[in-house]
Fold:
Amino acid sequence: MVGLIVRGALLLLAFTVLSSLATFSEPVAGHGLEVADSIPSGVVQARLGELPALAGLNVMLLEGVRQGLMLSWHESRPLLVLGRGGEPMLRFSEAGVEANTGSATWQALQGAGPGSHGGEHWLPVSRSRSYGWMDPRLSLETAGAVTDTGAPRLWRIPLQTGGRGFELAGEFYWRSLPAAATRVHDHH
Structure:
């Protein structure tokens, strides 16, 4: 379990580094960066708010170019993560984690259009009680225009267990980059 989390974190870190290197317009020389295309003065990030009072629930925000969630559930009753339209998307249980392939939100995560079958169809995605995913509700498209002077925008991901509704919630905020990170150095 810990090995899977560490491997996932390393893959996410590698993806983040490679993605940031891909933004440079010219190769990086051995003596320093020569030219970079419009380095931003800051980035929009998601922040996790206070967790619902649910025993057995652990949540971690995954940092990276695209942010995601790592959720663990350690109770005997199932926990549902609902999609954008309120449909069941993920089901956490003692048997592991299953994805509802009929969920439009799940299909969007997979890069697929709406499925041809209606209703719920559950597919095992993890034998453990933990699962991480890049939720579209944490994307920049959802955040909209967040600036250093504007009010933070909120995000919400509904949960259900034992016939009751709960939610994971937080905000998007503008994180300014240090001035040194936004300067382009010329070593000629």
